[in-house]
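Usage

Read records sequentially. Each one opens with the input sequence:
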Amino acid sequence: MIVSERETRHEHVLRIAQQMMTAARTAPKGKGADVIEIAIVTDADIRKLSDKMVALHEENGFKFFLRDADNILNAECVLLIGTREHVHGLNCGHCGFPTCAERPTNVPCAIVSVDVGIAIGSACATAADNRVDTRVMFSAGLAAQRLGLLKDCKQVYAIPVSASSKNPFFDRKPKEEVKK
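and closes with the structure output:
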């Protein structure tokens, strides 16, 4: 029997993405409160995510949303990591407000922000250990958040995953707007 890498690549990358999910889940959390949500986007749903990124570009004018929208189409899957709102009650002031009660609801808790960062780092370390290509994308995360792909999450980041001869998420040229 001969098994070509090209025939098994997609399933292999999905297994690694599942390992990335486990790494994000088991990453340390502030005060032990697990408010992390994780999902994998595949197949036609990657196109929906890309389309939403294009729509967000039309709303905000940021060219990198167009570039990233094109880039994720080269991914085998896109890992989403987000956090639900949580009040730790430490009154640490790290968010910029003296107490948790004074922090506006649209300002994330600093501990929760650190938690999502540690989860992202753990997921990306797992990807690196398995030699797949990734890039953390705020743009795709915002699109996923706007689409409601991670229920009740206030901060969402995306990590497209690829296994190709060249990382499609780095050394990219900015995508130009289509002239009308």
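Summary fields computed downstream for this record:
- The two ends are 54 Å apart (CA to CA).
- Residues 46 and 73 are 7 Å apart (CA to CA).
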